[in-house]
Amino acid sequence: MFNCHAHPGLYTKNALVCTASIDEISRLSPFPYRSLGSLPGYKTDMSIIENWAKTETFIGEVGVDKRFDNKERQFSILSDILSIAEKHHNIVIFHQVGWTEEFLNTVFSFNLCGFIVHSFSMSYEIYKEIGRHNGLVSLSPKAEKTKFFSTLRERGIIYPFLTETDTETGIEEREILKTWNDKLSSIFHIDMEKEVEDTFFSYISSCPLLGQK
Fold first, then answer.
1. Which of 55, 57, 58, 159 ranks highest by number of CB atoms within 10 Å?
2. What domain range includes position 57?
């Protein structure tokens, strides 16, 4: 059972562990699947992010958030990070709240190795557009209350997506993920745990893996 978006807690090899701040870089070292990020509201240092990008697979979570001010600076920082990811062939983990059109236009303007929009809550049409640009989305249990999830459920069809908890790794995280995967398995009549693992590991196989750059 693999968690496609968690935060540093107890050690696990079964999660993609992400940070929102470069100040948490030291907490990532034990985890085999790790991603250094820098979100609005936190300190940003492009030299640290670029040094990370040279040897690691993932960058993130990064993105934009309308709950913070200085929209222009947020998009400038995002573009700088995406330039780094494009250069070093990193998979980018995105956080996005608001400014959807500008966010997508910015992301799609770069030739990224891959990207994942975590805690996805946009429309079904945007989901398909992300797929056409070789991106994936990750759904936490909060997604069950979104219009996007209702659309999937009404159609009775499952499309490729990942599952996550967006919590610190640990016993509670594993319980949340199991409950979420079991619910999705029941709704869509597939083995969600296997579906997610197959999708995630197949996806990252197209990019340089940890320790192989």
1. 58
2. 3-204
